[in-house]
Amino acid sequence: MNDQNRKFLIFSLQDSLYAVDLAQIAEVADPPQMWPIPLAPAYYAGVLSFHGDIVAAMRLSLFLGLAECRQPGKMVVLRQELASLAFLVDSIIRIVSEEEISFSAPPDNCFSAHTLNFFESTAIQLDLEKLICAAEIDMQGSR
Fold it and tell me: What's the distance, Cα to Cα, between the start and end of the chain in Å?
């Protein structure tokens, strides 16, 4: 997929909208049964089997410092080459193409890449590289 045809998955956490480049996502699904990860930070809900691979499920709202969502509505699984990681989110809002949005400066948050302006809404595009790196460092520090 070339840069001019990029698409973004918009999802909600609490009362805010977030976005991830669709090319970084393997699948969106309902959260399955999970098993706990001993000694892991509280924002890890557990691990799950995803098409035969072991994937850690992260409560993204907790990781970002938001209140924990009541019951995650959806799970966003990242592509395996990025990380064996899935995000638990409140809900999936929509997919928007690059032609439907404009980019602006991100809020002052180390995990924000851009603000996406679309229709009459805005979403914070997450910088997955920084987020994954911080989660890995945090996980190593908890052991």
Answer: 39
Taken in order 22, 24, 27, 28, is the CA torsion positive or negative?
Answer: negative
Q: pLDDT tens, 32-53?
A: 999 999 989 999 999 999 999 9
- CA 142 vs. chain centroid, Å, equals 21
Which residue in this structure is represented by tokens 């909600």?
Answer: 12
d(C-alpha 72, C-alpha 88), whole Å: 6
Phi, psi at 46, each rounded to 5°:
145, -165
**Among the CATH numbers 2.40.30.20, 3.40.50.800, 2.40.50.180, 3.90.70.10, which is that of 3-141?**
2.40.50.180
pLDDT of residue 26: 97
Exposed / middle / buried, residue 92 (Cβ in 10 Å: 0-12, 13-18, 19+): middle
Tell me how far apart the alpha carbons of residues 139 and 123 are, in angstroms, rounded to a whole number: 27
